[in-house]
Amino acid sequence: MNRVSMRRLLIGPIALVLLAASARLGADAEDLLHARLADYLESLRIQAGIPGLAAALVGRNDIVWERGFGLQNVERAMVMRTDTPVPIDGLTQSVTASLVLRCAEEGRLSLTDRVALFDSSSPDAELTLWQLLTHTGTTADSQAFAYRPDRLGPLASAVAACRNDTFFEVVKDLLIDHAMMDTIPGSDAASVLPPVRGRPDPDTDRWAQALTRLATPYAVDQLRRSTPSSYPTAPLTAAGGLISTVRDLAQFDLSLKRGILLRPDTVALAWRPFAGPSGQRLPHGPGWFVQTYNGEPVAWQFGQVENAASVLTVTAPARGLTLILLANSVGLVKPFPMAAGDVTVSPFARVFLGLFVR
After folding, report:
1. 0.85 cut: is pTM over it?
2. Mean pLDDT, 10 residues at a time, over the chain (358 residues)?
3. d(Cα 227, Cα 223) in Å, to the nearest integer?
4. What is the CATH number of the domain that holds 54?
């Protein structure tokens, strides 16, 4: 065997060893980042007096890390899990927005359509669907930002008209189609579906089972003492009512990233920062808050149920990475002016951005 042949035989195994070592170094670095994220989140959870927190990092194709912190029920010492259901309130509007955007993709409606086409009695009848989705405008010509989830009601009528079905049924179908099997469309969902041939609807049975695992809600005082509270009855609307889990929200996120729920160009549109006619930054896109961090786009959304629960999601589209957080108190959101449109006021969001968007 000549020297050239011998060298080739040696180079092959050496290259494989080097590639394996490089991959291991990358995996070790990733594990270290995840460990640091877990440490920071646990520290922030304790500081905020949050009894239970569920978290996940979602990549382009799968959940890359998940963990529960603290307790979903303090009195019974039940640990918080990533499949523990919690009301997600304002995050419902991102689901609604995805349905409106899909209707627009299919040409069934236009985002420039007036609200009056779908709800003539709405006080915002002269506004466009785009203005409702982006929380802009108090008049047809206004581009001023005003975060008002209570104005989103007509979006449900637009989705219903687009699909020729009730908003409830359209949302229910979306949840099934995207494997969100522990997500419940409103706390009264079981009473919305009639029995099938005298027997309970199978969806109703599944929701009832998920509700048995619902995290106990807590009110937390200034001394971080938690007291069990209660969830209000919250039917499904365009702006709220969904009950979900971190794992189910990860499925929704993956459906967006994979181009299953919406076309990639539509998602890119929804997750990019916007500017008004005079060049001013608009904090909210169609369904998500949007801004930049270290020169990169960031899309995010939050929600809270007073004295009961809170949710925060933050996506770095260029990294293909999303942080999802669910808590059984308002500690993820309540102390911070999230509605103003700057996610960096949240220490939870800053930890994610500081570790992964550098």
Report:
1. yes
2. 42 45 62 95 97 98 98 97 97 98 98 96 94 84 85 97 96 96 91 59 85 96 94 95 98 98 96 81 94 96 97 97 98 95 97 95
3. 12
4. 3.40.710.10
